[in-house]
Amino acid sequence: MMKKYFLIILGVVIGSGLCGCVAASYQVQVNGYTDPGAEVAVLPGAAIFVIDNKEAQNPLLAKEIKTKINKLLDKKGYQVVPFEKADYYLLFTYGIGQPQRVTQNIPDYSVGWGMGMGMGCPMGPNSYMFLWPGFVTYAPYAETLYDRWLLLNVIAGKPYREKGQFQTVWVGEARSTGPSADLRVVINSLLIATFEQFGKNTGKAVSTDINPQDPRFKELEAIK
Predict the structure, then answer these.
(1) Which residue of 13, 86, 153, 189 is surrounded by the most CB atoms within 10 Å?
(2) Which of 13-17, 106-110, 146-150, 188-192 is least confident?
(3) Which of 164, 175, 167, 169 is nearest to 200 (CA)?
(4) Where does the chain have alpha helices with state H?
């Protein structure tokens, strides 16, 4: 019996340690907008050209993100074509906000345990271990959070190509908040969540969790 309870406690401790090693998911909020006058925002299988973000402070990161967008467009069944053949053009911007220091009260759970003995058998075969409910205390925990965002803008191809006119047919906004300031990595979750709603009018912000172990995340992460 004593061995049984020891294994239970050991399992709880090990389980808690493993949980701490699991990578946290990115929670992303996505809003999709369409032109009310358009029957279809972006035609399925249409030809799309992704325009370079010439205002990017890091042009190499922008080039990396463009490659990832082209990859996702292809997987959604769209044609990635040269500028002069596009039905639509896709523009993208992204960024990260200033760090924000946030303090929260984190619960700390404690569990009591002890040992009992049968009558006349100190530490003998009738000894046993027991657990009793512990108590909860709250400790302040401070962390630095960053607001990360991505904006995709799809415009009609012919008016832009011939007259330089911006006729927006779809806009996708993605935003997440978390402790990572590495936009090069976080952008993968923003892209995946946005392309889940690509071309749709979501009506409101749609929340989705993107796990770093997701094969889609790993595939984008491999693009350098």
Answers:
(1) 189
(2) 13-17
(3) 169
(4) 2-21, 59-75, 157-163, 183-196, 215-221
Nearest-CA neighbor of 5 among 113, 118, 154?
113
Which pLDDT score, from 0 to 100, does residue 217 have?
98
Cα distances (Å, whole numbers) of residue 168 to 10, 91, 192, 205, 207: 59, 10, 21, 19, 24
Residue 141, strand partner residues:
104
Q: Give the per-residue pLDDT at 219.
A: 97
Residue of 132, 186, 138, 155 whose CA lies nearest to 51: 155
From CA 85, how far away is CA 157, in angstroms rounded? 9
Phi/psi for 38 (5° steps) reads: -95, 135
Angle at 73 between CA 70 and CA 77, to 5 degrees: 140
The structure tokens 């044609």 sit at 79
* Angle, CA of 59, 64 and 70, to the nearest 5°: 125
Task: Quote the pLDDT of residue 24.
Answer: 86
Average pLDDT over residues 86-101: 95
Residue 121's Cβ-count burial label (10 Å; 0-12, 13-18, 19+) is: exposed
Q: 33 near 170, Cβ under 8 Å? A: yes
User: Quick one: how far is CA 73 from the chain centroid?
Assistant: 19
With pLDDT > 90 as the criterion, what percentage of the chain qualifies? 65
d(CA 174, CA 169): 17
Q: Mean pLDDT across the chain, nearest whole number?
A: 84
